[in-house]
């Protein structure tokens, strides 16, 4: 049985589904894999949506792409492909699916559309934004070009299509150093993440002109917080995202993108680890590495958490919300994204 309840957004109803014996049997094997990160009492809420989303994906010829910061019931439950921002950009450019449901934030859906102008790209909640993407506009980039004539612009992929259109080349946190050095110049404008820019500057001889954008999740961490984790958990290995402040990175055992962190855990198999990044990352990685103990700092991205199973289902049912990019902007933005994809094979945010 299905009825409808009002969504948090107000106007569009969210489907409400029953947990039937058929759904329980259909999803039992999946829950065995996820039981360490999803309480048993919550599974009857998630399982009906997972089953119905799987059915509708086949009916719609759709594929679900999920960022590493999505919750486990999405990341492991309904995602066909998952990863960081660079991985999602590559996967979006390679998929044969007619419809892409992007479970992430709006700039990621825009990037998928830029790379797939002929495909339908859906985002389950239009309010899933990003503090970095909102920190800069295309007009800002044009003014910077006037102030620093001839200096190439490297832009973090966490930006709007309008900003990408004014950019020479995009980058992600894992390939940023490689992208900067690929230009063969002494000086670049690096936008918009100030902390990522400071980290990149510490890894290269190229001079970086920085913007003061920050990620509202990562900027809240502090070096003192990392030291407290070490004091409370003897021998814990600290992995930090380069969007964190410099005092956090100085305390870390490893600095890298989300894919880099995942690779580190897989390769090193630390006894105990803390990932200084968005909260859901630890849950998602823990599913694959049950022998590693994860200390969980819990800074949540409020925008990522706008994406839920009921909204994904509604998105497939109603084919909303379709992401569109002005064709002229998309053409120029595509060049900067494709240049990024041509530089190495690193992983992204």
Structure description:
- This protein has 349 residues and is of the alpha/beta class.
- The protein is 43% helix and 16% strand.
- A 4-stranded parallel sheet has the order 4-3-5-6, sandwiched between helices. The chain has a 4-stranded parallel sheet with strand order 8-7-9-10, with helices on both faces.
- Helix 2 runs parallel beside helix 14 (309-318), helix 4 packs parallel to helix 5 and helix 5 packs across helix 15.
- The longest helix has 18 residues, at 43-60.
Short description:
With 349 residues, the protein is of the alpha/beta class. The chain has 15 helices and 14 strands. α4 packs parallel to α5 (106-115) and α5 (106-115) packs across α15 (327-342).
Blueprint of the fold:
Elements: E1 2-6, E2 13-17, H1 21-34, H2 43-60, E3 62-67, H3 72-75, E4 81-83, H4 85-94, E5 99-103, H5 106-115, E6 120-122, H6 138-147, E7 153-156, H7 161-165, E8 169-171, H8 176-182, E9 187-191, H9 194-202, E10 207-210, H10 223-232, E11 237-240, H11 246-251, E12 254-255, H12 258-268, E13 272-276, H13 280-288, E14 293-295, H14 309-318, H15 327-342
Parallel strand pairs: 3-4, 3-5, 5-6, 7-8, 7-9, 9-10, 11-12, 11-13, 13-14
Antiparallel strand pairs: 1-2
């Amino acid at each position: 049985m299905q009825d409808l309840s009002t969504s948090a957004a107000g106007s569009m109803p969210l489907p409400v589904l029953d947990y039937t014996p058929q759904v329980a049997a259909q999803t039992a094997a999946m829950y065995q894999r996820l039981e360490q990160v999803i309480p048993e009492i919550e599974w009857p809420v998630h399982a009906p949506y997972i089953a119905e989303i799987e059915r509708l994906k086949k009916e719609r010829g759709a594929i679900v792409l999920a960022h590493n910061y999505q919750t486990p019931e999405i990341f492991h439950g309904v995602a066909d492909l998952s990863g960081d921002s660079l991985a999602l950009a590559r996967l979006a450019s390679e998929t044969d699916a007619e419809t892409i449901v992007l479970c992430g934030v709006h700039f990621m859906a825009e990037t998928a559309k830029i790379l797939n102008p002929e495909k339908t790209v859906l985002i389950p909640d239009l309010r899933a934004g990003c503090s970095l993407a909102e920190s800069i506009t295309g007009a800002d980039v044009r003014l910077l070009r006037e102030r620093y004539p001839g200096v190439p612009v490297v832009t973090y992929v966490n930006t709007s299509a309008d900003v990408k259109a004014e950019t020479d080349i995009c980058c992600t946190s894992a390939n940023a150093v490689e992208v900067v050095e690929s230009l063969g110049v002494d000086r670049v404008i690096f936008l918009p993440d100030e902390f990522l820019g400071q980290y990149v500057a510490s890894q290269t001889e190229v001079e970086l002109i920085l913007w003061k954008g920050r990620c509202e999740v990562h900027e809240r961490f502090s070096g003192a917080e990392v030291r407290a984790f070490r004091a409370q958990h003897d021998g814990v290995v600290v992995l930090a995202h380069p969007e964190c402040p410099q005092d956090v990175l100085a305390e870390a055992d490893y600095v890298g993108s989300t894919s880099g962190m995942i690779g580190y855990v897989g390769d090193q198999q630390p006894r105990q680890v803390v990932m200084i990044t968005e909260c859901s990352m630890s849950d998602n990685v823990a599913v694959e590495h049950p022998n590693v103990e994860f200390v969980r700092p819990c800074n949540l991205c409020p925008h990522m958490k706008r994406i839920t199973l009921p909204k994904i289902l509604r998105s497939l049912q109603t084919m909303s919300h379709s992401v569109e990019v002005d064709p002229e902007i998309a053409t120029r933005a595509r060049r900067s994204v494709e240049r990024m994809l041509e530089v190495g094979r690193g992983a992204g945010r």
